[in-house]
Design brief:
This protein is of the alpha/beta class. It is built from 10 helices and 8 strands. A 5-stranded parallel beta sheet has the order 2-3-1-4-8, sandwiched between helices. Strands 6-5-7 form a 3-stranded antiparallel beta sheet. The radius of gyration is 17 Å and the shape is globular. Bound molecules: adenosine monophosphate.
Length: 264
């Protein structure tokens, strides 16, 4: 598992016809992974580290909604504006809106560089839609990584999390503070607390997770795809643990069809 080139995920973040730079290299045996775990468990950080190690693109549905929220009103569709309202309250966006958004980006699912889905699927209906779509494309997942962490630690991680508005790097006010308060170490962008990381939204999000996402664990266990990983310790330690678990259970097979790179 070598170091990979970081892509800008333009095709994913903006949707077609945007193109990623660089276009992900088509590999013989791309990794196609789903990351599960409650909000705050560190899926975004792990997706980014796994992208560096495995090359597959980090595809976060939350990032797409946040990127769309930053655009001007006239560039936003009514469905997107409705999605922001759900997001602001910490609730899940309706399945149909999420699936329309993902389907529009199906080039990223077909991409010969593979993918690491973070924050999708989040409900059984979304998981079924993804399974049907991948089957129709003759693609299969290598594994679904389920990150596990005690509840008290989840709440502490979420309430202290700060995100760079420019490069999306993630910090924590106690465990991983930036060198200068409120300023990103990597690009100098301003750090902000996501609206849905405020205490009133955290409770709603954890309840939504229990209700809608926890059943996915059974769904993927029944498909023999589930790999559980403890999300304790440093991000690097968790990443190593994930890679070890993946090596054990889910080496991608070169017989899996690898289609041409996505438009993005
Ligand atoms: P995340 O960054 O993954 O925590 O997502 C932030 C917010 O975006 C969530 O709290 C939801 O409101 C919305 N969201 C992102 N992905 C999904 C999804 N797959 N299904 C429903 N809502 C989603």
């Amino acid at each position: 598992m070598s170091q990979a080139t970081k892509t800008d995920r333009a095709g994913w973040l903006q949707g077609p016809p945007a193109e990623c730079a660089p276009i992900p290299a088509k590999t013989q045996s791309p990794w196609r992974l789903v990351l599960l775990g409650a909000p705050g468990v560190g899926k975004g950080t792990q997706a980014s580290l796994l992208h560096e190690r495995l090359g597959a693109c980090h595809l976060s549905t939350g990032d797409v909604f946040r990127a769309a929220a930053g655009r001007s009103e006239c560039e936003q569709t009514p469905a997107m504006r409705m999605a922001f309202e759900f997001m602001r309250r910490g609730e899940l966006v309706p399945d149909s809106t999420v699936w329309d958004m993902v389907r529009e980006r199906s080039g990223c699912i077909r991409c010969g560089g593979g993918f690491i889905l973070d924050g999708f699927p989040r409900t059984l209906a979304q998981a079924e839609a993804l399974r049907r779509h991948m089957e129709s494309e003759r693609l299969s997942l290598n594994a679904v990584v389920n990150y596990e962490l005690p509840l008290e630690e989840i709440v502490s991680r979420l309430s202290g999390r700060r995100t760079c508005q420019k490069c999306k790097a993630i910090f924590h006010v106690i465990s991983q503070p930036s060198r200068q308060e409120g300023v990103c170490d990597y690009c100098g962008g301003g750090l902000f607390q996501r609206e849905d990381d405020r205490p009133e939204s955290i409770t709603v999000r954890l309840q939504a997770y229990e209700r809608s996402t926890a059943p996915l664990i059974k769904f993927y266990k029944d498909l023999s795809l589930l790999v559980s990983v403890a999300a304790t310790g440093s991000p690097d330690a968790i990443c190593e643990r994930t890679l070890t678990a993946l090596e054990r259970v889910a080496r991608p097979s070169s017989s899996t069809r690898s289609a041409s790179p996505s438009q993005g």
